[in-house]
Design goal:
The chain contains ten helices and 15 strands. Helix 1 packs across helix 4. The protein binds magnesium ion (MG). Pathway: Cofactor biosynthesis; thiamine diphosphate biosynthesis; thiamine diphosphate from thiamine phosphate: step 1/1.
Length: 394
């Protein structure tokens, strides 16, 4: 049975091709697109086309690796999210993890499974240059100005636009056709899934760890929180209003989150920071991760938490009882949370992103919750983790 076979190159296919000639065409397509968008990148010595990619981190750096799934009906819906947004978000999630560690991207590896109708479209809409390349002829020009057409075209356009902006080359991956039959052989609609792996480099010993927070540290966050959850609410109410949102823009925190790579790089350069994490699951959950890994507790000043305008609008429009709860528990903001000793000078903005002190790390105490909200009247309330958590059983 050749239904699955072992991957054999840095970008290969592990199921029968989606259409006659589609397998090689698909790979050639991705390769041509990756090369067109890659530019000069010193960290990538060899990209798509061999058994492995070769990355070369700068001298004196550690290599960091992260991986993230984007599953249809879990992380995105084809009837809600424009394909460009799905591609952008797929890469942004991995890049945000690199930012959380203070790392610079070396290469991205994209594994994607598409249902037959999307896979066929992807192979058929291969641009001429890639088609020539697939047939062995020398490509006269690379498809830098691809006109997006199929779902996959548009997914890739969103993915590569962010890759180009953040100078991260697509260095390899895998493709597969997701099944469209159930166990009884009945036809069902297949689902799309993408898995992103990011490899990055960080000066040796300087990665920001979740386990490095110390009592007395100030807790900072970048940007504003709750915007992604608020935009998701709006998206769910009227997806048709967002169908034309095909370009990354800062005012679409859910559809096009902006990973804070530049801010993170500037922050770690020459400054003493302790712990770091990106806010993917929500402030309440992600700060609890820091407390758990560092063996500390945290106190937040409620009035200091920066709340995104879209979250305030959602409260004003009566969609949610509290904008603050979106900022605390909403998730997918992909802002950074970091801690630093009190004497570390932190500017108000860096790389165009605002920085906000929101509380402090304290010693853990028996029978006291690990994260507490301090109100302006001096009262305190425990902050339970309320963010996104997989496998909760509901
Ligand atoms: Mg993360």
């Amino acid at each position: 049975m050749a239904a699955t076979r072992k991957s054999r190159s840095a970008l290969s296919v592990s199921v029968p091709p989606p259409a006659p000639g589609g397998e090689r065409a698909f790979i050639a397509r991705l390769r041509a697109e990756a090369e067109a968008h890659r530019g000069r990148h010193a960290g990538l010595r060899l990209g798509i086309g061999d058994d492995c990619a070769i990355l070369r981190p700068p001298a004196g750096h550690d290599v960091v690796v992260t991986t993230d799934f984007s599953l249809e009906q879990v992380h995105f819906r084809r009837d809600w999210h424009p394909p460009e947004s799905v591609g952008h978000r797929c890469l942004a999630r991995g890049l945000s993890d690199l930012a959380a560690m203070g790392a610079t991207p070396l290469g991205a590896f994209l594994s994607i499974a598409l249902p037959p109708e999307l896979a066929v479209a992807a192979a058929e809409t291969m641009p001429k240059a890639a088609r020539r390349k697939a047939s062995g002829a020398r490509a006269a020009s690379l498809p830098g100005s691809l006109k997006p057409e199929s779902w996959f075209d548009r997914f890739l356009a969103g993915f590569l636009a962010l890759a180009e902006k953040e100078h991260v080359p697509l260095a390899g991956g895998d493709t597969a056709q997701s099944p469209s039959f159930d166990f009884s052989g009945h036809k069902q609609s297949g689902l799309a899934a993408a898995d992103i792996t990011l490899v990055g480099a960080v000066p040796r010993g300087h990665a920001l760890l979740r386990s490095a927070a110390r009592p007395g540290d100030v807790i900072y966050v970048t940007g504003a929180l709750g915007g992604s959850a608020a935009e998701l609410l709006a998206l769910g109410r009227s997806p048709q209003d967002f169908a034309a949102r095909t370009l990354a823009a800062a005012h679409h925190p859910h559809l096009y989150p902006q990973p804070r790579l530049a801010a993170a790089r500037r922050l770690v350069a020459g400054r003493r920071l302790h712990a770091g994490i990106d806010l993917s699951d929500g402030l309440s959950t992600d700060l609890a991760h820091i407390c758990e890994e560092s063996g500390v507790a945290a106190e937040l000043d409620t009035s200091a938490i920066p709340i995104h305008k879209l979250a305030r609008d959602a409260q004003q429009d009566g969609w949610v009882p509290s904008a603050l709860s979106l900022a605390l528990h909403g998730g997918e903001d992909y802002e950074l949370l970091f801690t630093a000793p009190r004497w570390t000078k932190i500017p108000r903005t860096i790389a165009g992103v605002s920085l906000h002190p929101i509380g402090e790390i304290v010693k853990p105490r028996r029978n006291r919750p690990s994260v507490i909200l301090r109100e302006s009247d001096g009262s305190q309330t425990p902050l339970d983790s309320g963010g996104w958590e997989h496998f909760r059983g509901d």
